Amino acid sequence: MFAISLGDDGAELRPLEPRHAEEYLAHIDRGREYIGQYIALSDRATDLASATAFLQSYADKAAADSGRLYGIWTDGVLVGGVLFRTFDAASGNCEVGCWLEEAAVGRGLITRAIRVLIDWAVEERGMHRVEWTASSANTASINVAKRLGMVRDGVLRESNPYRGVRHDMEVWSVLAREWRERRASGR
What is the value of pTM for the model shown? Predict the structure, then answer.
């Protein structure tokens, strides 16, 4: 197994696999309300079987080269994760996403982890475009997109029905050339 350090604070990025189902469920249970504010992730893991099924769905995506899932651990505790929700090597397009339990907010974990994913997608896999989609109400998520140097492509008005409310969804992206320029300039 591999782990990628996210800095000198003990945070690591590792594959999140079906064998982590109990740990993943405990993490979701700790952060269920906070995580579930804008994304349905916490609704998809309500017991061990559903947590395992979710993790298996991403193991299947990884095997098909159509998505991947990584956990963020701090001091050995799973506190969040990042993913390639979609990954289409043929078209050169992918979408990244994230979640984090409230106790881990404010440490830059998501920004650091997503940088690792974008670096890999652009430099190792030759992706041309990396997307980020977030509810317009999810200020924290939109701020990550901004910190990553993404450009707001537009708003899909009332496109996402979630928990009885239709949410506007913002689409942000960064192109490979923009990412390389940003990284070369040290930003």
Answer: 0.93
